[in-house]
Write a structure and sequence with these properties.
Layout: E1 4-12, E2 15-20, E3 29-32, E4 45-49, E5 52-55
Antiparallel strand pairs: 1-2, 1-4, 2-3, 4-5
Length: 56
């Protein structure tokens, strides 16, 4: 799977909505906060590679 870049666009309870920033995509990715690094907030930029998210 290729690397992807996201920004946290919204947080709703225990879920975050991620907007793709490195490619054109109309839909946000809906993902459990438990799968994301600690300390994320709206506007946090994330890198996804090898099934792991890291803050950039």
């Amino acid at each position: 799977m290729e690397p992807k870049e996201y920004i946290v666009s919204r947080i709703d309870g225990e879920y975050a909505y991620l907007k793709r920033t490195d490619a054109e995509c109309d839909e946000d990715l809906f993902i459990a906060m438990a799968l994301l690094p600690a300390g994320i907030d709206i506007g946090t930029r994330l890198h996804y590679e090898c099934m792991e998210y890291t803050i950039i």
